[in-house]
Structure formats: structure tokens, C-alpha cells
Amino acid sequence: MEINKNPIDLTFQNVTVTVKTKQGKKQLLSDVSGICKSSQITAILGSSGAGKTTLLNVLTDRIENSKAISVRGKIQANQTEITYRKFSDFGTYVMQDDILLETMTVKECLQFAANLKTPGNQLEKDKVVQETIKILKLERCQNTLIGGQFVKKGISGGERKRTSIGFELVTNPSVIILDEPTSGLDSFTAYLLIAELKRYAINRQKTIVFTIHSPSSDIWQMFDRIMLLVEGQFIYQGKSNEAILNYFSNQGFNCPRMQNPADYFMSLMHLNQKNAQNYPIYFQKYGSLLKLQVEKEIEQREKSEILAYKFQTPFLYQLQQIAKRSLKNVKRNPILFRARIIQAIIMGLIVGLIYFQSEDGSNHPTSIRHMNDRNGLLFFVCINQLMMSLKPCSVSFPSMRKVFLREDSSNLYSPYAYFFGRLAIEIIPQIISPILYGLIQFFMVGLNDRTVGNVFFYFFCLILNSLLGLSLGYIGGSIFSDVKTAVFMSPLIFVPNALFGGFFKNRKNLASWISWIEYLFPIKYSFNAIAANEYENTHFIPSPTELLNLEFSKWECVYILLGFIIGLLIISCFCLVCNRKRLQ
Ligand SMILES: Nc1ncnc2c1ncn2[C@@H]1O[C@H](COP(=O)(O)OP(=O)(O)OP(=O)(O)O)[C@@H](O)[C@H]1O
After folding, report:
1. Among 54, 71, 271, residue to substitute to test ligand 1 (most atoms within 8 Å of Cβ)
2. Is the domain of 252 the same as that of 354?
3. Among 122, 159, 229, 423, which residue has the fewest nearby CB atoms (within 10 Å)?
4. Distance 49 CA to ligand 1 centre (A)
5. Does ligand 1 have an atom closer than 6 angstroms to the CB of 32?
6. Domain check: are 292 and 384 in the same one?
7. For residue 4, what pLDDT band results from cuts at 50, 70 and 90?
8. Ligand 1 pocket residue status of 46, Cβ below 6 Å
């Protein structure tokens, strides 16, 4: 990684954030101005709820004006105003939660970001990864899986945090903003991390800003600039060490010699009765002694051009990278894939045994009992296939939503590439599973095998049904943000499909005011196609398709089903793109 050609001073002026709450309006930040300089590390301290994360969200332009929240003020980089997309052109935001894919190794994780976000050939991208690993001292764990809920063995909390930072560093940003990078780390690991960030800021002229809760005295010594926040207002901003100690001692707040200054200032800011009486003094002193000075400093910054970092790899390359990663994810966490296959085998066996060599009308052509059995079997197969793929597909997007949102906010790839890259892999079990299911029960039951065409058509219908479940699952998964809601809502898709499918209630008996609804539920076409195929040249008299009043030919149903699948996939892709929320 080369020296930064684009050093940036980040400034903010008169920033006020107001939210509407049930109790009325609440100011999270009140008219704050400040400056974060290049080649320096700036630490923002304050007690819990002081507004630190809110300030970072404003700096990275992640809060939008809306009915519920109002943001005023000016954010500038080298005296040029910034907007959300422009921030990601030169800066990066490492959020408090380390959102990483647990099935990747540290190196693969950084490689993924480097492949998608850095220009040059593969050798150059690999070099960036190696350098990032070296800077963040991740050599020892580079080939260890990240780990988490499903993959139990993983890297430590400190390594996780550094990987999270590394994921953003590979793009060589000029400004790095971090929300509590040391949370959850022991004091020595925290020290090493801040020391690394400081070295990085100096050596590469980066602007590093972070919030921190309780730094040790060793960490405190390293800060170049400190901002102290109390109830959304600054009470100090400027140099660290002697400067801040002198400022407060001049006001009668002397830090005991043997005490960690960070602890002392945190105790001054903590909301209790005694401190609350001092708050007006802090604000008044800041207003009279520092505010003007900071504003002057901001005005004196020189205007210079920001070299925007707009590199994005071609769409097909993004698609390939996402598909490769999804495949690895399935291989290393195969539980869902295995469950789908085992489910297909067990369900195939159950159906095969229950309907074993069921009567096809050749012995008792007029038997309504046998005809009903066969109709029931065909309808059950349609519903069963749909449900077997709907559930896993409805949870697949919500379960990866955080990773997607994080990568999307880093502008790593197009959301369309993400959607189709995942689809390319997730479609595989949805094709294998119905084939397996069909192979087991088709011959056990003794379905229509008069021609090879009939056999293939049956299997084709099973696959279409499975893909229908996938596309319906994707719709739920891309609309609902969490797994539980997506699963709870799936009966809303299933029940009307079953009721209007043409088996439980004969379509001719539907009231005229409601009969049009049946055309909206695709299972009707699946049942129609599979029944039309089964009863081609049937022995049953009269023909079950006539009794069921099935109106379409089997190929007409296939075209309609394909239309449904493609249409639903397009809608779910659109929902995913529109539902992207910025992580705050
Ligand atoms: N959308 C919102 N609506 C109402 N109140 C909010 C909203 N977002 C934040 N707050 C409140 O604003 C205050 C500042 O929140 P913020 O997350 O910036 O604090 P913080 O200093 O980062 O705290 P911590 O150190 O605990 O993370 C808190 O009291 C929080 O409850």
C-alpha cells in the first residue's frame, strides 16, 4: 500500500440532530463543530448516550433527514461538502459490531474485499491482502475460520476486530472512522490495536477518528486530538495530554497525578447530581474559550481537491466472486443443504410407502375412491415441493442481511450481482432435491410412465415447483428483515395457495366474486400441469381432469409457471435493492 496521495481533513460545522420522540423533540447533537486532521488519530469520549455514535453517523452521512429525524449542519472534506455516496469514495466506517461471514478464513475475507475493491491484476490484489495482514498482525490466524454461531471454532475477539478493520483497509481509504474499536478487547490487545492505527495514520497520512469508552493511560497518551461529548455538546476539543489537563485544571478540575486522565474525565462527564451542576460550567467555558478557536481552525483549512475512489469491478466479475463465496459457504456450513437432501429422501419414502403401487384406474376405472387418492397424491406432491424449498429460501436472505448491508455500504458490489450470485448457488439444491424426491416415489407409487415424455414432464414439474418455492421464499426474505418474521409469514403464502389450488374446492364451485383470485396463486398451475400429465390417456372414467375442471393444457401451465418464477425473482430482486437500509 502506498502513501496516501489524498490526505483529508474532515470538518463539521453547526451540526444539530433532533429526533421526534413520544415525549417531544430531543436533541442528540446540539450545534457541534469540529475538525479531524489527517495523519492524526482523533478520539471521541463521552459517557453512554452522549451522542458519540450519532456524531459518527453524521460524519459518514448515514443519517437522512426524515419525519422522525432532522439533521442540520455542514460536513466537509478538504472544504468540499460531502454526501453519503461521496463519503465511501474516500472514507470507510468500521461499525461497532464485527459483521463478517463466519465460514470464511481471515485471509479469504480480506481477499474478497480486495478482489472487489482494488484495481490491478490478481498479483497486485494478493499483495494488498498480504500487506493488510502484516499491518494488522494477522499472520498467525490468516488461515483460521472467522467462526460464530454455526462454525464454532474461530478467531479471537481481537483478531475479529482487526479483520473487520482490515476488511475496510484493503481499499486504502483516506479517512477511517471506527465506532468503539476496542470494545470487548483486553487492555493490552486494545493498546496494540490503537498503536497500529496510530502508526498507520502517521506513515500513510490517514485521518483516523474513533469513539472509545475507557482507554487505559497508555492508550490515552497516543491520542493526537480529543473530543469530549456531554449530552450532545462538546466540553473539550483539542490536543491531548498537557493541553487538556491544563484546560480543565484552569477551571478547577485537577486530575490527580496518579490517576488515568481518561478515567478522571469520564468521571467528570458521568451523569450524576454533582456533575450535572457542573455541566453549565463546562458548556459555558467551552463556548467562551474553545468554540471560536475551533471555528477559526476550520475556516483556515485550505480547499483542495478530493481524489474520489470510485473503482468497481465489472458486473460479471462481481457475480463470479459472490457465487464462489456462496459455494464455499455452503460447503463449510452444509447443514441447510444436507437437511434439504435428507428431507427429500424421507418425504419421498413416506409418500412412496403411503401410496405404494396405488390404483391407476386400469383395474377399477370408475372407482372414485382410487381417483381421489391419486388426485390427493398429486396435489400433496405440489404443495410438499413448494414448502420444502420455500422455507430455506425465505431465511437465506435475512440470515445474511447484515453482511450484505455492510458490504453494500462499502460499495463493494452491485446489489444485482449479490442477488444473482447467490441465486446461482442456491438454485442447485432446489434442482437436486426434487429429482431425488421424484426418483424415490415415482416408481414406488407407479405414476404415469406410458411414455418417456410423461416421466420427464413429471420430474420437470417437480423442479418447477421447487423453483416456485424458491422465488416465493426470496420474496419473503427480501421484504422481511429478520429470519423469524420471514418464517412466521410463510403460511400467508402457503394457505391461499392450498385453498385456491383446485383440489380442496372444485374451481367450478367457487363463488363468482372470488373465483378470479385462483389465477393469482401459482400452485393451481402446478397441480393442473402435473394432473394433465398424469391423466393423459387415463384409464379412469370419466377423466379426472374433467371432473376437477382443469382448464389449461400441461404446456400452457409450464409457460405460466415460468412466468411466475421469473416475475417473482425480478420482484424479489427489486425488493432487496429498495429495502437496503443503511446500518446505523
Ligand atoms: N433514532 C433515535 N430516536 C430517539 N433517540 C435516539 C435515536 N438514536 C439515538 N437516540 C438516543 O440518543 C442518545 C445518543 O445516542 P448514541 O448512540 O449516539 O450514544 P453513544 O454516546 O454512542 O452511546 P454508547 O456509548 O452507549 O454507544 C441516546 O440517549 C440514544 O438513546
Report:
1. 54
2. no
3. 122
4. 5
5. no
6. no
7. low
8. yes
How far is the centre of ligand 1, averaged over its atoms, from the C-alpha of 63 (Å)? 13
What digits encode the pLDDT tens for the residues 172-201? Answer: 889 999 999 988 788 888 898 899 999 999
pLDDT at 122: 92
State residue 3's pLDDT score: 52
Mean pLDDT of the chain: 88
Measure the CA angle with vertex 35, ends 29 and 37; round to 5°: 145
Any domain includes 183: yes
- Is the minimum distance from the CB of 51 to ligand 1 under 6 angstroms? yes
Q: Which three cell numbers stand for residue 557?
A: 401451465
- Look at residues 115, 111, 58 and name the one whose alpha carbon lies nearest to residue 318: 115
Enter the DSSP assignment of 145. B
Instruction: Please name the residue whose Cα sits nearest to atom 18 of ligand 1.
Output: 51
For ligand 1, say whether the CB of 232 is within 6 Å of any of its atoms. Answer: no
CB-based contacts of 357: which residues, under 8 Å, 6+ apart? Answer: 444, 445, 446
Centre of ligand 1 to C-alpha 551, Å, is 60
Q: How far apart are CA 147 and CA 109, in angstroms?
A: 12
What pLDDT, in 10s, does the model give residues 199-255?
999 998 999 999 998 899 999 999 999 999 999 999 999 998 889 999 999 988 898
Q: Is 4 part of a structural domain of the chain?
A: no
Domain count, the chain: 2
Residue 287's domain spans which residues?
10-97+175-298
Q: What is the 3-state secondary structure (H, E, C) of 162-180?
A: HHHHHHHHCCCCCEEEECC
Q: What is the pLDDT of residues 385-423, one digit of tens each?
A: 998 888 888 777 777 888 888 888 888 899 999 999 999
Interface pTM, i.e. ipTM: 0.96
Q: Are 526 and 561 in contact (CB under 8 A)?
A: yes
Q: Is the CB of residue 50 below 6 angstroms from any atom belonging to ligand 1?
A: yes
| Same domain? 377 vs 466 | yes
